[in-house]
Q: What sequence folds into this?
């Protein structure tokens, strides 16, 4: 093994005792606790870069192979946890390069030819993004699977649909469940769009000006699975928009989980009692023995605040930076990994809650009331040829009349109804049946059983599509 160098990789000019980096700065400057997470991507990028150097005849094929073999040794050290750090290691790039040089000496010193950590780190981050996207989609997928399962197992269960948290119209529980699920599908689609958009290789941009040594960027792009190369080296090294996009995708997904959590928290109250959250996802109170708290869902709702704060964090970090790379950008990792990790936690918890929750179909149906059919009464008149605006007005009168008498809509006699509008007839009793009414909403996207089955099919096909990715 070659002798360990006590110096930083940039230390040519800073090497003497007086020039040693201030301790606090060294700590702040060190991104190792964060970027060690993509040691594998850094190694992948470096092996490919060594091959590109060989293709440009800047090193020999043998040297490229030696670099590749040594970097695989370094990879194994990371894997087994035997990799050692020195106080002078600034980040994952310096660790990998230092170890390479320790292992194979001078040949290792050729790897960084024409490369800068500026194009290296953004390349690594883009390579990590693939993993971030893949694992986030896998988490979303698991929630979608659980929700689809609940929705298909409970077809036919009716409950009040709410707007403004006021009882609005009867819907199926499955319809409600899938309303949240489609938002999660859109999250997957958004992430996949980002994957495409971000898939341009920055490597070969150097520190900022590009590469003067004939490195074939197009070849490198293919080699590393990119669709093409970034179009401007100064843009490439300073661009973290893909990180913003990723955190935005995570933020939006977390908001979707938060809204779902909020519905579930409400539905789990004694007042609603539509669902029971499993013991494994509930906690008790230290004071009140009867309590059964939906902490799991409150944490999911709370986590979204922290994920969204990462979004403003990355945007504020980028805001004042002048062109190209500045060290501020080092914080991109903190925001991206934090958003990713917290979303993973939230997804796991939500998946578990949905899988294990129990429905109380009776309470859901008991929460339905005849006034929720007022709209359907108006449609009844519409079917008899009354213009909707007028029908709405007539039903308004019926509702007021019933309210005055302290009765439900279905408790008004036909005679009285006909006094308000002559188009009322004996068949109005059919409108009183909730289930039959719900089945009328058979438009695509509606709450009729057939329409929900179509929605289930759409989601099942999408899950299949995700499987084939
Ligand atoms: N650790 C740095 C980061 O994460 C790598 C890039 C350093 N570049 C530099 N010119 N100092 O951003």
A:
């Amino acid at each position: 093994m070659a002798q360990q160098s006590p110096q930083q990789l940039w230390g040519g000019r800073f090497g003497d005792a007086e020039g040693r980096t201030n301790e606090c700065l060294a700590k702040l400057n060190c991104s190792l606790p964060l970027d060690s997470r993509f040691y594998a991507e850094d190694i992948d990028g470096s092996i490919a870069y060594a091959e590109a150097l060989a293709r440009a005849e800047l090193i020999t094929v043998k040297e490229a192979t030696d670099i590749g073999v040594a970097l695989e040794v370094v990879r194994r050290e990371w894997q087994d946890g035997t990799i050692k750090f020195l106080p002078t290691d600034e980040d994952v790039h310096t660790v990998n390069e230092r170890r390479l040089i320790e292992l194979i000496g001078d040949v290792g010193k050729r790897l960084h030819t024409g490369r800068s950590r500026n194009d290296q780190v953004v390349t690594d981050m883009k390579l990590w993004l693939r993993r971030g996207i893949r694992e986030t989609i896998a988490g979303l997928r698991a929630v979608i699977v659980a929700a689809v399962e609940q929705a298909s197992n409970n077809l036919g269960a009716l409950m009040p649909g709410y707007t403004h948290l006021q009882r609005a119209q009867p819907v199926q529980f499955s319809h409600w469940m899938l309303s949240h699920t489609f938002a999660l599908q859109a999250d997957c689609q958004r992430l996949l769009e980002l994957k495409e958009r971000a898939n341009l290789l920055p490597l070969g941009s150097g520190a900022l000006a590009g590469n003067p040594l004939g490195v074939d960027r197009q070849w490198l792009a293919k080699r590393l699975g990119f669709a093409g190369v970034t179009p401007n080296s100064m843009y490439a090294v300073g661009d973290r928009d893909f990180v913003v996009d990723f955190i935005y995708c995570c933020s939006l997904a977390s908001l979707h989980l938060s809204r779902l959590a909020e519905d579930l928290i409400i539905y789990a109250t004694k007042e609603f009692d539509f669902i029971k959250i499993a013991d494994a996802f509930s906690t008790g109170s230290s004071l009140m023995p009867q309590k059964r708290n939906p902490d799991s869902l409150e944490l999911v709702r709370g986590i979204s605040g922290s994920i969204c704060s990462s979004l403003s964090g990355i945007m504020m970090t980028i805001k004042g930076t002048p062109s190209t790379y500045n060290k501020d950008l080092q914080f991109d990792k903190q925001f991206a990994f934090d958003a990713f990790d917290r979303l993973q936690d939230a997804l796991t918890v939500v998946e578990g809650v949905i899988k294990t929750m129990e429905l109380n179909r009776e309470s859901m149906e008991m929460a339905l009331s005849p006034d929720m059919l007022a709209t359907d009464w108006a449609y009844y008149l519409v079917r008899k040829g009354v213009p909707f605006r007028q029908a709405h007005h007539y039903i308004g009168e019926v509702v007021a009349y019933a309210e005055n008498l302290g009765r439900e809509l279905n408790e008004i006699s036909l005679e009285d109804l006909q006094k308000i509008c002559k188009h009322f007839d004996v068949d109005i009793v059919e409108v009183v049946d909730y289930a039959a009414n719900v089945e009328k909403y058979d438009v695509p996207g509606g709450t009729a059983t057939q329409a929900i089955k179509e929605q289930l099919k759409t989601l099942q096909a999408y899950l299949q599509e995700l499987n084939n990715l």
